[in-house]
Design a protein that fits this description.
By secondary structure, the protein is an alpha/beta fold. It folds into two domains: 200 residues, CinA-like (Maf protein), CATH 3.90.950; 190 residues, Rossmann fold (3-Layer(aba) Sandwich). The protein is 35% helix and 20% strand. The strands form four sheets. The protein has an eight-stranded mixed beta sheet with strand order 8-7-13-10-9-14-15-18, sandwiched between helices. Strands 2-1-3-4-5-6 form a six-stranded mixed beta sheet, sandwiched between helices. β7 and β8 form a beta hairpin. The radius of gyration is 25 Å and the shape is globular. The N terminus is likely disordered.
């Protein structure tokens, strides 16, 4: 149960940044420190200006000089300062200092916190718009352990002063949300954009941790970032914690498998294994610098106009169990996905897909919003160092195996297809298992929900047990019927 806070101000609409800061200042239970690096002391400035800050702010500092910062927080192995590791060091160090310097029994009613950020704003040439890490370590009861919210932002404005102001507002929103909206993480997430707009900044990663957030699934929070329009792509690892896409993709060889994975089947895994083997044998690919990503488009998660969150978590649970990194994107068209990857790497990019999905790329209806139509899309798609790794499909009626050699595209697209095919942009995966080509996720899902026998043999080892034990995809523990 969340501690009832004192000093509440009755505000019926979304409060301004000044009113949020004032509400925090007037709450005699909230007390902590601010440590801000790289963009001035923009967050704490709002609390000083709001008035009544003497009972809230224990210390405010900005270790702007790198040598001075290293003397306080230590030297990073990679000599980088705008990183999650640096932010966590700042939060841990400042909280410990607060605890060491104050006698707790003299502050028995105080809920301690430390707010920190480490950022870089837009450069002089305006080529790099800047980004940063922002975090809060805080108590919701003086006797409880600390909770933590950490997020990553990318600035969109092209003026350093505007970025600083935006950062300051975001910091206030985070602190306010942590204390007044902590029992509703969804609303807390939305409130980070109070008095801000999507054209000012992008939040592309957030993680909640601590006892008060033990029920929060960070994968769902990641999904909500895309749903709320805060970012176009998010990623999480096999442990369920969110990852920063930029750090995972930076200067890496990338192999991506797009699918519904509802549920992940033996065919999906065979495609994965075949594609990885082929991709890592490419001359331009460094195996140890290769990132393999299972990607699901946002539109694939929508059911009847709404996101089916339970269904999303079911898919995520299985992919995480297989040790995979998962990405959710808002890029329905492949060329947009490749453009996104190209922001972070110039290395070889691979798209692994089945023949059916590949044929859809040649459907002109997906490119009507482009002035150059499908030619513009294909120029963006294949101009990069990209290859498509094609997994065959079996024709249900004839039993014929369809590959790049005999697939059919619209007559108007045949020459375009031939151009990319004969330029080595499309590669058939030949080391596939022919015995599993008739496995379809839709059929498996139907068998699970209708309790028909035999679906277990269509899934990777260990996955059926997870579905049964956790009752995923509507599975019932009632006895199965044939």
């Amino acid at each position: 149960m969340t501690l009832k806070l004192k000093g509440d101000i009755n505000i019926s609409t979304v409060p301004s940044i000044e009113l949020k800061a004032l509400k925090i200042n007037l709450n005699k239970s909230i007390y902590g420190t601010f440590a801000e690096i790289g963009a001035g002391q923009e967050t704490v400035r709002n609390f000083f200006r709001a008035g009544g800050a003497s009972g809230t702010i224990a210390k405010a500092m900005s270790a702007y000089d790198k040598d001075f910062s290293d003397a306080i927080y230590g030297v990073e192995d990679d000599n980088r300062y705008v990183t999650e590791i640096r932010l966590k060091k700042m939060l841990g160090y400042e909280i410990k200092l607060l605890e060491d310097r104050l006698i707790r029994k003299h502050h028995s009613q105080k809920m301690f916190f430390t707010f920190a950020n480490t950022v870089t704003t837009i450069d002089f040439a305006k080529k790099f718009k800047g980004h940063g890490w922002v975090g809060l370590k805080f108590q919701l009861d003086p006797s409880e352990p600390y909770n933590e919210i950490i997020l990553h932002v990318r600035f969109k404005e092209i003026d350093a002063k505007l970025q600083q102001k935006t950062l300051g507002a975001l910091g206030v929103n985070l602190i306010y949300g942590a204390y007044y909206l902590n029992d509703n993480p969804r609303e807390l997430l939305k409130s980070l954009y109070d008095n801000l707009d999507a054209f000012q900044l992008e939040i592309d990663m957030i993680n909640f941790s601590g006892a008060r957030f033990s029920y929060v699934d960070n994968r769902l929070m990641s999904l909500l970032l895309v749903k709320n329009g805060m970012t176009n792509a998010v990623m999480f690892g096999h442990d369920g914690n969110n990852l920063l896409p930029a750090e995972q993709l930076y200067k890496a060889n990338i192999l991506v498998l797009r699918g519904s994975f509802r549920p992940v089947t033996k065919l999906n895994i065979d495609l994965y294994k075949c594609a990885v083997e082929h991709f890592k044998n490419e001359k331009k690919v460094i195996p140890e610098n290769t990132k393999v990503i299972f990607e699901i488009t946002f539109s694939n998660l929508i059911s009847e106009g709404e996101i089916d969150e339970r269904d999303f978590l079911d898919r995520a649970e299985l992919l995480c169990a297989l040790g995979q990194k998962v990405m959710i994107t808002n890029f329905q068209e492949y060329f947009k996905l490749v453009e996104y990857f190209s922001e972070y790497t110039k290395k070889r990019i691979g798209l692994a897909m089945g023949v059916s999905n590949f044929v859809q790329i040649f459907d002109e209806k997906y490119y009507r919003n482009l002035s150059g139509g499908i030619l513009e899309a294909f120029g963006k798609l294949f101009y990069k160092d990209l290859k498509v790794y094609l997994y065959p499909v079996k024709d249900i009626k004839t039993g014929e195996i369809i590959t790049s050699e005999n697939l059919k595209v619209h007559p108007r697209m045949q020459e375009l297809y031939k151009f990319f095919k004969f330029n080595g942009k499309v590669v058939d995966l030949e080391n596939y298992d022919p015995n599993i080509l008739e496995i379809y996720a839709k059929k498996v899902l139907q068998m699970i929900s209708s309790r028909k026998e035999g679906w277990e043999y269509m899934l990777p080892e260990g996955i059926p047990e997870i579905i049964k034990n956790q009752k995923l995809f509507g599975y019932s523990k009632n006895e199965e019927i044939s």
